[in-house]
Structures are given as C-alpha cells and as structure tokens.
Amino acid sequence: MPIVFAAAMSHAPGITAWPEAAPAGQRDNLGAAFERLAADLHSARVDALVLLTSEHWVNFFLDHVGAFCVGRAEAYTGPVEPFLRIERREQAGAADLGGRIVAAAYENGFEPGFSFDLEFDHGSMVPLHLLGVGNDVPVVPIFFNTLVAPQPSAARCYDFGRVIGRALAAEKQRIGVIASGGLSHDPGELRHGIIDSSFDELFMQRMERGDAAGLRGYSNADFAAAGAGAFELLAWIALQGALDGARGHKLAYEAVVPWATGMGLMEFDVA
Amino acid sequence: MSTYTLQRLLRDVNRDPALRERYFAEKDAFVAGYALTPEERSAILAFDVGKLYALGVHGLLLRPFTIIHKMSEPDYLRAIRGEA
To answer: How wide is the angle at C-alpha A58 spanned by C-alphas B79 and A147, nearest 5°?
Structure first.
C-alpha cells in the first residue's frame, strides 16, 4: 500500500518549552498549521508511523557514531529533557516493521545501524505531541547523524529514503511518514539565533516540487552555512526520496527568533 | 572534539535523572568520578560556560546543561562569545 500520510516539520524545543516567547502572530500561524496536520493525520487512519528524525546526544555519543539507526523496539520513552513541558511517557514501537525496513535496506545497498533500545528527545517527542500521536499508533524512528562530521550526504539520504519508501509500499498496513528537524538554525553555537529565510524558502520550494536533483545536490558546506541544525534537513530529503518526487505544500513558515529556528511545516500529496 | 570525557559528563547530567540529582547534590565527588584534565575539572566546578565552550563542548550538550542550571539564553550567548 502506498504511504497514506506524509509531512515535514521543524522540532525546536521552544515550541513546547517556551511557546510564550514567540510573537503571537507567528505562534498562531504555526499553531494552525500544526492543527491542520494533526487533523489530516487523524483522517489518514494510519496503522503505523515512520519518523525520520535526529537526536541530540541522547542515544548516541562519541563512543560509536553511525550514519543511520533504525528503531526496532516494542516501546520507546521520552522526552529525556526535563524542561520540555511534555510529560514523559511510553510510545509504542512497530518493531516488526522496523525489522523489515532494516532487511530491505540491507538488500538494497544500505546497512543502517539498528537498535532495540532507544529513548526519545524533543526531535521525536515534539512532532508526536503536536500531531496528537498517542500510544495507540506504533512508530519506527529512523535517526540520521546530524551532529558529528562527516554526516551522510544529501544524495545518500535521498537514496536511503527511496529504499525506505519502496519497503513501505510493500506493506499492507496504512503507514504515515514524518520528517522532523531544521530549517536553518545554529542551536547552542556561536551563531545561535541566526535564521536564513532565503535558504529555507528555496529548500521548501525544492521539497514542494519534488526536485530530486536540487535536494540531492546540497553539500555539507551548504548546511553548515545555514547553521549546525540545518543538517537535520537530511531527514526531509530522505522523506522526499521515500515519496519519489511527490508534490508538497508549505503549510506555514516563520522565522521565530525566540525559538532560534526557521520553522516550517509541509504536507505532501500521497495515496 | 577531543574532550571526550568532559562531554560525557555533561551528557550524563543532561540525560540521566539519577546522575543529575547526584551531580547537584555532591558536585565535587561526582566530578571526581570522571578522568578530566585539571583545566576541565576547574571549568566544570566553576560552571565556566565560556571555558567549557572554548574547550570544545558541543553546543547541543552545553546549552541543555546550562538550561538545567537556569542560565538565560542571553547570558549563555555572552558566555560562549566571550562577552561576559
């Protein structure tokens, strides 16, 4: 069955940890877009959700760095951060689906890491929380190394997404896919607070058009120039790979300085 | 990124509630459990955020660590930029 729901969104912790810091107009615009996505996800009646995301030193550290990690756990917990204003809870995992994604990857030129024991931080919990995903919808998280150089290339992430998309198309279940992270931001670093709106707008246009060449052509230097957090867009690029060029629609974009992030939300034409 | 053990200390405090509690309750003893250089040890005990950043602690370890210490964003940015 084809993917029945696909979306991409930023996951800055300020969205839930200090929402009041953002200007009301920006907050309202983004809030309406999150509500629309939540409603569309609900209408899609997904059996399982694949989360293309990044994490921030929670599961992975410098003792072992891999490019990709697919979750195969029966359950996850999160968020790890005590300041996120999201209650720590359990989230069911679609362990078998995770295993099938790993197997499909190994048969098609990718050898991602995999794990039966992962915790969630804001990179996963903010999307689940804002889209109203509860413990009744099992998830498969797929983490991209966005923190430590060398990160996987945009082209490689797009192609990994293609493999994931084909694996999901072979499923009988109704599956949704969400990409989480970005857009331009430099969290905790010297340029914390920078937002490059023209980078963000062009990136979202390429996502809207399903512009494979444009998306695969981003270099690590392009992302670094848009802030260390822009590497999280590798997950968005993988989503467009999974969708094989489906049209997307920007639901909202705001450069939210108090959240130090170019905040974007998109939904894609699927099924 | 050579400050492996120092970064591991921050990560432990950030992600593990029991270790976080112990860090705040008995900081000297907690820090003594990590094989840090004298410079790293004094930076962490003095909560010298500018020094920790200069030593190479990743921003996504250091900023959550400072949020747990109730440090405001402007104060954090002044510290890592050496403007304090």
So the answer is: 65
Q: Range of B71's domain?
A: 3-81
Whether A81 has its CB under 8 Å from any CB of chain B: the answer is yes
Alpha-carbon gap: A57 to the closest alpha carbon of chain B (Å):
7
Task: Give dist(CA A31, CA A155) in Å, integer.
Answer: 32
Q: What is the mean pLDDT of chain A?
A: 97
pLDDT at residue A132 above 50?
A: yes
ipTM of the complex: 0.89
Where does A95-145 show beta strands of DSSP type E? 113-115, 139-144
Inter-chain contact A192–B73, Cβ cutoff 8 Å? yes
Structural domains in chain A (count): 1
The token pair that represents A21 in the structure block: 């810091």
For range A1-26, the mean pLDDT: 96
Q: How far is it, in rounded angstroms, from Cα B77 to Cα A214? A: 34
Yes or no, beta carbons of A188 and B1 under 8 Å apart:
no
- Partners of residue A83 in chain B, C-beta under 8 Å: 64, 67-68
CA distances from B75 to A195, A228, B83 (A): 20, 21, 9
A185 vs A254: CA distance, rounded Å: 12
* pLDDT value at residue A86: 97
Distance (Å, whole) CA A128 – CA A121: 11
Residue B69's CATH number: 1.10.700.10
Q: Average pLDDT of A60-73?
A: 97
Instruction: With beta carbons under 8 A apart, name residues in chain A contacting B17.
Output: 82
**Closest listed residue to residue B10, CA positions, set B64, B72, B56:** B64
Chain A nearest CA to B30, separation (Å): 20
Give this prediction's pTM. Answer: 0.96
- Going from the C-alpha of A197 to that of each of A17, A180, A248, the distances in angstroms are 23, 18, 19
Question: What is the CATH number for A67?
Answer: 3.40.830.10
Domain membership of residue A113 as a residue range: 5-268
Q: What are the distances in angstroms from CA A87 to CA A20, A131, B83?
A: 18, 15, 36
Q: Which of residues 228-257 of A touch B (CB under 8 A)?
A: 228
